[in-house]
Design a protein that fits this description.
244 residues; Rossmann fold
Length: 244
């Protein structure tokens, strides 16, 4: 089951939203849907401070009310998990983590909120899972370059979502290099499939709630990460779209 949340129930000092279940005529409350979902996706615009405040409020609210919460990040690659764990376990410093993952030159420039969220998780012993495919691999896919055997094995093999390419093509209309849209779509699918595969692995091995921070296109219920997860698991998933 996938729920989606938009526009008008306030969540402490953040952008607000209300909820509906596309398969249920009785909309769930904010509290019930947050507590019942195994996976909560916050469909962010990466550089929007209000979206990050909402993410932080959801994570802290679940933690404060006694839920076992884990944070999943599009912004950390699956191959960087060991470096992330070392940082969260206070075995290394932020400087060491950022240097080994080149975080400050990438996502750290997009928003300071990611560092703030990771620091809070470290202080409060909240686990964090890196979800994404290595950028080096998706870049090769976008350039139509051959992957090594090891790189090929990193990407889960899922069927293509119906209408996924058409939706991606429409979103890319007018962008530079749009003539290469099929290759870019394959790279996008590699991102989505890797995030979904990592989420499914987490679900098999952990209890509690996974709060996933990812871009809005990746959170699409019909073509993005939740679609891949729903094909392979019956857990309740919730998609939160921060109010504009």
């Amino acid at each position: 089951m996938i729920l989606a949340q938009f526009g008008a129930l306030a969540l402490a000092g953040c952008a607000s939203f209300s909820s509906f279940d596309s398969g249920n005529s009785n909309p769930p409350t904010r509290e019930s849907s947050l507590s019942e979902a195994r996976v909560i996706y916050v469909a962010e615009i990466h550089n929007d401070p209000a979206h990050h405040r909402l993410e932080e409020s959801i994570i802290r609210s679940l933690h404060r009310t006694g839920h076992s919460v884990t944070v999943g990040l599009e912004m950390v690659e699956v191959t960087q998990q060991s470096a992330l764990d070392q940082y969260l376990e206070k075995k290394t410093s932020w400087t060491t983590f950022a240097r080994s993952t080149e975080f400050e030159s990438g996502w750290g420039k997009t928003s300071p909120a990611y560092k703030r969220i990771l620091e809070w998780c470290r202080r409060n012993q909240v686990p964090v899972v890196g979800l994404n495919a290595p950028h080096s691999v998706t870049r090769k896919i976008a350039r139509n370059q051959k992957l090594t055997s090891a790189e090929f094995q990193l990407i889960p093999k899922f069927p293509e979502p119906p209408g996924g390419f058409q939706k991606f093509e429409a979103a890319m209309a007018g962008h530079p290099g749009s003539g290469s849209v099929r290759r870019y779509y394959r790279a996008q699918r590699a991102w989505d499939a890797t995030m979904a595969g990592t989420i499914l692995s987490w679900l098999r091995n952990n209890q509690g709630t996974l709060v996933v921070l990812l871009g809005q296109m990746h959170a699409d219920a019909q073509t993005g990460v939740p679609w891949y997860v729903a094909r392979n698991s019956e857990v309740a998933q919730l998609i939160v779209y921060p109010k504009e």
